[in-house]
Amino acid sequence: MYGWGAKTIMGDVKINRGDYSLFESALKKVLPEKQIYTELAVRFAYGTDASCYRYIPKIVVRAQNESEVLSIIKTAYDHQIPVTFRASGTSLSGQTSSDSVLILLGDDFVDTKILENGAKVKLRPMVIGSNANLALKPFGRKIGPDPATINTARIGGIASNNSSGMCCGTKDNSYHTMDTMRLILADGTILDTSDDQSIANFRQSHASFLESIQNLAQVIRDNPELETKIRHKYRLKNTTGYGINALVDFTDPIDMLAHLIIGAEGTLAFISEITYKTVMDHPHKASALIYFDDLDNCCNAVTSLRQRATVDSVELLDALSIRCVGAHITQNLPNFFYADIPDDSGCLLIETKAENDLLLDQQIEFINNLVKEHHATEHSSFSKDTVVTDFYWSVRKGLLPIIGGSRPQGSNVITEDVAVPIERLAEGVRVLTDLLKKHNYEEGMIMGHALEGNLHFILTPKLDNEEEVKKYDLFMDELAKIVAIDFNGSLKAEHGTGRNIAPFVKVEWGEDAYGIMRAIKSIFDPKGIFNPDVIITDDPTLHLKNLKAMPEADAIIDQCIECGLCEPACPSDGLSLTPRQRIVLWRQHQELVRTGENPELLASIQRVYPYMGIETCATTGMCATRCPIGINTGEMMKALKVANRQPDIANFAQSHINGLSKVARGMINVSHAIGSQNSAKISQKMHSIFKGIPILPASLPKSVKPITQLMNDDAKQSVVYFVSCVNRTFAEGTTDHVSVADHTLSLFKKSGFKAIFPENYTSLCCGQPFESTKELLANEKSVNRVNDALLKASKNGEYPVYIDNAPCALKLFEAQDQGLLDSRIKLYDAATFLVEKVLPELTIVNKREHLSLHIPCSATKMKAAPALTKLAEACTDDLSFTNIACCGYAGNKGMLLPELNANGLRLLKKNIPESCDHGVSMSRTCQIGLTEHSGIEYQSIEALLNHCSQ
């Protein structure tokens, strides 16, 4: 084994796994037992990442903070047990898979600190990349890396994989923009490169460690041919192997050490915190889609753009990719996505940015002339409209799941990621196309970050088929030779080495460089406890083992490729299962039921799935808004849910809504009479006996008083007002009986509207409570009653209909789409109506100093978020966002399953500035949960606008 003080550079890591039962016992002494998962089904689900591999961890651990990570590492080191760290699990090459101990990171690792007026940002590893950019936006800055998964990928993974992306290139990746880092080594030592004392202590305690790193750097300096090779390799995008350019780019071994950690995929150390130097985010930008009917012309245009034009990103799509996108995205794209295009065609998505609009126009003109020189066939024209350009880029970011969603049933998805010198791009695309055809991968599509010569291609083999695996093996062998040797390119440009390319690192780098990489692993991790077999492996067939099967299970979810893009929108993430994990377990359940295999796993799934899968799913469908192909896991959970089967009770309820609302208001009055804190405790005890009894929140709103209908006889316009039953029950706040309707009617009066109430409006319900309990007949009767009342009140659609609660509005919109509500009825959610009809008539005079905005999932699904944001911005000069996609209140689940709401809002306080004491949303139930878990009052958008206007 290579020692830190030795002068030789070669060495191997000994991996002698210890006793897992002893390790588990030791772990329970340093961690709460609830953070240690040993149930088989849970380990199976949590062990899933976006790669083509299926590993089941022996133990899964959730570490909430650095102290707990340190305890786990020390325990693993003592017991010689390998550990793997997981952030979002969107990695595609198997680097976050483990058959040993998988460590999930908790909420203390979500923290962002803006430094030097945005010039730098300090981030902990569980911060989502796009959230870091959101925090930097007021400063006109962003982090350099911009992977396509930035809305899901977290900083720990972005740094550990040296992720780049569409605009990042090589100059703005983590390697080049990392300023300082705090890390934990295998022996438990903490090094903080932002702390001079920490560095001084490390130089003293690890002198031989640093000497060994310097020895490796000297070996490279003594070998000019190797040094030239390293510099060439990192002129390209390259994440194959360790970043040994650190040994030639720096002279201080501390700098070498820190930069070796970037892209090391958790095999050398744990990144506890990282500070980035940020980059400019120019506000003036434009994008265009440009089509070529000749692929050579397309690729040659890219080379010219790289050499002659100011462009920030150029994305390439081949003909197969264009057709696939056109088949899934059926509108809002240029015509060539839907035309019969030749096989030898291609498309470029180009973005250019500038400091001002004049310069941007000059750049656009130059690019247009340049692509004309290369015989562009069709051009969408450059657009500066962010709605248009964001749509283009969302399609590109979702390309992998879009293409994966069109794969044959039961097949897997493998995406490879290579780079060739930009001057050989056209040749590289041709050779890759021929290679795919040679191995009968007719479905193989090529796309990528063309400006860097970075090409991605997607294969969809059935990995449970031995012949398919053999074919894949032959393909990979030939790919490695062509890319690494013939083109002197990189086998992994940005997706990381992982398990998929680990057997080919030596092929790409050769004996000398690979020997240095093995020595690096030995220096940092002499016991081999950090992520073994990732990057460095002795198994030449590692990439063919533990391949993931994708059995058919349900038409709703069969297209899922387990990418995990849905997870940040799920309120049960961290409590039970995410949408991806629900799909993983249900797929496995259905397969085991069919085959009769692995009865232990089947029994485990059946034991945990009712609660972890079905009951704790909010079923709001927010997962579908993050999924590029719109998979709604909540729909499957609804289908699996057992109906209440109490039609008589449901039918009675839907026909006595008014009476039940009165009873609810009476109970609320009683609760406040005995004290809301006491009521919460009593209801908690009663719920523990009978789960059907709701747990009342400590911040329970007051009951509403009867609505006072403000007459506005001078009004020139009329609007039908649908008051939701939740707003006919709960008052606006916790201290008085003012209702949302009081504020709404005041706004109508201020803006010149006369409110018309439907007949028997206090007996109307949108049907949401009955649909969620699968009482379909009661739901249908409710919708029919609403339809008749709204049609009559609106004079067959002459007047618009205002709905004062976002979930109810969404329910009625969906009913109208399904043909259950007359199409003549003009439905408006509150935010859209207020922005279009009311706000222009108001004068804002009393702004809130600070305001926190929560956009409920129903608003997102109705596309009402921009309207709600505009209203909030009108009422404050300092607006912050909760950044919570779904709070998990989910109708009545907030009171029947309060742990879901608590989990969904566990980061809420972190996302509210200390100076902020007012919150706003447009869903009454969401506002109850937000108030409960934030410590500030969240009111309706109607109340806010009424307060701020005259």
UniProtKB/TrEMBL annotation:
<dbReference type="InterPro" id="IPR006094">
    <property type="entry name" value="Oxid_FAD_bind_N"/>
</dbReference>
<dbReference type="Pfam" id="PF01565">
    <property type="entry name" value="FAD_binding_4"/>
</dbReference>
<dbReference type="InterPro" id="IPR016171">
    <property type="entry name" value="Vanillyl_alc_oxidase_C-sub2"/>
</dbReference>
<dbReference type="InterPro" id="IPR016166">
    <property type="entry name" value="FAD-bd_PCMH"/>
</dbReference>
<dbReference type="Pfam" id="PF02913">
    <property type="entry name" value="FAD-oxidase_C"/>
</dbReference>
<keyword id="KW-0809">Transit peptide</keyword>
<keyword id="KW-0285">Flavoprotein</keyword>
<feature type="domain" description="4Fe-4S ferredoxin-type">
    <location>
        <begin position="549"/>
        <end position="580"/>
    </location>
</feature>
<keyword id="KW-0408">Iron</keyword>
<dbReference type="InterPro" id="IPR017896">
    <property type="entry name" value="4Fe4S_Fe-S-bd"/>
</dbReference>
<keyword id="KW-0479">Metal-binding</keyword>
<dbReference type="Pfam" id="PF13183">
    <property type="entry name" value="Fer4_8"/>
</dbReference>
<dbReference type="InterPro" id="IPR016164">
    <property type="entry name" value="FAD-linked_Oxase-like_C"/>
</dbReference>
<keyword id="KW-0560">Oxidoreductase</keyword>
<dbReference type="InterPro" id="IPR017900">
    <property type="entry name" value="4Fe4S_Fe_S_CS"/>
</dbReference>
<protein>
    <recommendedName>
        <fullName>D-lactate dehydrogenase (cytochrome)</fullName>
        <ecNumber>1.1.2.4</ecNumber>
    </recommendedName>
</protein>
<feature type="domain" description="FAD-binding PCMH-type">
    <location>
        <begin position="53"/>
        <end position="281"/>
    </location>
</feature>
<dbReference type="InterPro" id="IPR009051">
    <property type="entry name" value="Helical_ferredxn"/>
</dbReference>
<keyword id="KW-0274">FAD</keyword>
<dbReference type="InterPro" id="IPR004113">
    <property type="entry name" value="FAD-bd_oxidored_4_C"/>
</dbReference>
<comment type="similarity">
    <text>Belongs to the FAD-binding oxidoreductase/transferase type 4 family.</text>
</comment>
<dbReference type="InterPro" id="IPR016169">
    <property type="entry name" value="FAD-bd_PCMH_sub2"/>
</dbReference>
<keyword id="KW-0411">Iron-sulfur</keyword>
<dbReference type="InterPro" id="IPR036318">
    <property type="entry name" value="FAD-bd_PCMH-like_sf"/>
</dbReference>
<dbReference type="InterPro" id="IPR016167">
    <property type="entry name" value="FAD-bd_PCMH_sub1"/>
</dbReference>
